[in-house]
Amino acid sequence: EPEVTQTPSHQVTQMGQEVILRCVPISNHLYFYWYRQILGQKVEFLVSFYNNEISEKSEIFDDQFSVERPDGSNFTLKIRSTKLEDSAMYFCASRTGSTYEQYFGPGTRLTVT
Amino acid sequence: EDQVTQSPEALRLQEGESSSLNCSYTVSGLRGLFWYRQDPGKGPEFLFTLYSAGEEKEKERLKATLTKKESFLHITAPKPEDSATYLCAVQASQGGSEKLVFGKGTKLTVNP
């Protein structure tokens, strides 16, 4: 069964450094998402991406964040200058064009020290 | 603002002891209500989508139902492997929103 994959599974970085989190969505999916979950808190929406552009973003998704689909398979989230409060699990998700359920990857645990 | 509240926060059951989890929601037009299962340190695993009041979906020991204000996830004769956090999420239809708004989840523990 096709799955969303994410790399790395765990990333440790120092405050102020740039990080890139990578995702490979399910191959026939058209809509792509990033969510985050701070330990013990709700899963929060960051951004949605369709047809090579951002379709919706949350207040969390400020100028420090960017997304890219550099080729036909990868979808990336970049944080330009990480802060301590960016420490969280980051989930990539995707869906087809004909149904609304989003399928999530296993997540990348980002630890900012 | 769209909101999802799940109760209880935690639930302990004995194997075979059936129960229900609640998800109350307020949303500006419901496109869909989604149930996910999340194991510790893992991503949410899709279970069900419900689109309109009165709809029901079933999968093994799980059954999800929907009214205009809430959804229930009924667990019949649970097994220890059903232990997980169950998340409810809604998607609004107004404005073409893509985001899922999640509740905090119900942590279910099933003891053998």
Fold and architecture overview:
- The complex is a heterodimer of chains A (113) and B (112).
- Chain A is mainly beta and 113 residues long.
- Helix content of chain A is 0%, strand content 50%.
- Chain A is built from no helices and eleven strands.
- Chain A has strands spanning 5-7, 10-13, 19-24, 31-37, 43-50, 53-57, 65-68, 75-79, 88-95, 103-104, 108-112.
- In chain A, the strands form two sheets. In chain A, strands 2, 4, 5, 6, 9, 10 and 11 form a seven-stranded mixed β-sheet that branches. A four-stranded antiparallel β-sheet of chain A has the order 1-3-8-7, with no helix packed on it.
- In chain A, a hairpin with a 7-residue loop joins strand 9 and strand 10 (103-104).
- The N and C termini of chain A lie far apart (37 Å).
- With 112 residues, chain B is mostly beta strands.
- Chain B contains no helices and eleven strands.
- Chain B has strands at residues 3-7, 10-14, 19-26, 30-38, 45-50, 56-59, 62-66, 70-75, 84-92, 101-102, 106-111.
- In chain B, strands 2, 4, 5, 9, 10 and 11 form a six-stranded mixed β-sheet that branches.
- In chain B, a hairpin with a 3-residue loop joins strand 7 and strand 8.
- The N and C termini of chain B lie far apart (41 Å).
- The A-B interface holds A 4, 31, 33, 35, 41-45, 48, 50, 55-56, 58, 89, 91, 99-107, 109 and B 31-32, 34, 36, 41-46, 49, 87, 89, 91, 97-105.
